[in-house]
Amino acid sequence: MTEKKTDVIVIGELNVDIILNEIDSLPVIGKEIMAKSMSVTLGSSSAIFASNLSALGPRVAFIGKIGKDNFAEVVLSSLEGKNVDTSHIIRSESLSTGATIVLNYNQDRANVTYPGAMNDLKLEDIDFGFLSGARHMHFANCFMQPGIRHDLIPLFRKAKELGLTTSLDTQWDPEEKWELPLEELLPYVDIFLPNMAEFKFLSGCSTIEAGISKLKKFARIIVIKNGSEGALMWDGNDLSEQPAFINDTVVDCVGAGDSFDAGFIKDFIQNLPLKSCLETGALTGAINTTRAGGTGAFENQETVRKIALERFNYKL
Ligand SMILES: Nc1ncnc2c1ncn2[C@@H]1O[C@H](COP(=O)(O)OP(=O)(O)O)[C@@H](O)[C@H]1O
Ligand SMILES: [Mg+2]
User: Fold this and answer.
1) 208, 224 in Cβ contact below 8 A?
2) Of 70, 131, 148, 231, which alpha carbon lies 20 to 30 A from 13's?
3) In a domain, 24, yes or no
4) Ligand 1 contacts CB of residue 227 (under 6 A)
5) Which helix (DSSP H) or strand (DSSP E) does residue 135 occupy?
6) Which 3 state secondary structure label does DSSP give 81?
7) Residue 23 within any structural domain of the chain
8) Does residue 273 or residue 25 have the better pLDDT?
9) Average per-residue pLDDT in the chain?
10) Residues 4, 59, 230, CA angle at the centre, nearest 5°?
């Protein structure tokens, strides 16, 4: 067998988050209000996944589309700072890098997103020669990527033909139509990673049991994330439950699902038992909640191990 250069290639959306904290009130048309602090960080679920997976050890590369602007530099430097290979991120001359303005008010938030170049990533943009140099392909946030969302079947089929294992985290559908051809797509997806609400909408079933019994005919492994309740896994034969690691002082839950995915896939590509993948996912999901934003707790392997031990008494 030829040696693979990359462990995981992530295909997905890229943008920046402009986070305004402690705003005076909700925005009012025609008026100006002030925020007490601001940060500009790497946004987008696929990028948080890639960044955190790389911090956990595996060699990670990214395929996505951005512009040639200042926000593109934020995206690239953040990913490169975490050792993610950005050589296959396409830089469009004509499109801008997207951004989400996050307005944090009291305990809640209002977001406004301009998707920008992420809208334009297409199947034709994927370098299959590059993909074939990886062991695993992860795709995230399909509903936010209209240029490629209708080509997921050929994309995942090709990845399987090239011998990769695959995972999919659909994320939320902002249009709430939940149109995804699961019956044709899931046979090419090794690990399907929705959260509880997404699973119910996607399966069209109001209970887990009904949803699993509908999807199990064509799905392989289904992992359903359920916030502070933990997660459930259908491994092809049985349904198992993974309690959450208790965090009494949650900073925020931004990116918890992406960090869960990162922990799960880290173990999966090492061929560890699925129960171990599930437990590591729950751990990295919980670790995510100990610091601000989606990547705050995932500086490097050492920090993650330290948080695992000190906060969750777990040796990672
Ligand atoms: N408050 C929390 N305490 C501990 N673990 C959490 C908490 N919130 C999320 N997690 C972990 O992170 C995982 C993903 O979070 P979840 O909110 O379900 O996903 P998503 O961000 O995709 O909606 C959960 O399955 C759980 O294991
Ligand atoms: Mg999610």
Assistant:
1) yes
2) 231
3) no
4) yes
5) strand 134-140
6) helix
7) no
8) 273
9) 96
10) 120
For ligand 1, whether the C-beta of 294 sits within 6 Å is no
- Report the C-alpha dihedral over residues 180, 182, 187, 189, rounded to 10 degrees: 50
Other beta carbons less than 10 A from residue 154's beta carbon: 13
Check pocket membership of 180 for ligand 1, CB cut-off 6 A: no
Answer whether 58's CB lies under 8 Å from 137's CB.
Answer: no
CATH at residue 144:
3.40.1190.20
Exposed/middle/buried for 288, CB within 10 Å: 0-12, 13-18, 19+?
A: buried
State pLDDT tens for residues 210-236: 999 999 999 999 999 999 999 999 999
In a domain, residue 277? The reply is: yes
The residue contributing the CA closest to ligand 1 atom 16 is: 227
For residue 208, give its domain range: 6-12+45-96+116-312
Number of structural domains the chain divides into: 1
Nearest C-alpha to atom 5 of ligand 1 is from which residue? 286
Contact predicate 23/35, CB 8 Å: yes
The residue whose C-alpha atom lies closest to atom 11 belonging to ligand 1 is 285
Q: How many residues does the chain have?
A: 316
CA angle 163, 54, 60 (to 5 degrees): 35
Could you tell me if residue 32 is inside a domain? no
The whole-number pLDDT of residue 293 equals: 86
Report which bound ligand comes closest to the CA of 197.
1
Residue of 223, 233, 253, 307 to test ligand 1 pocket, by largest number of atoms within 8 Å of CB: 253
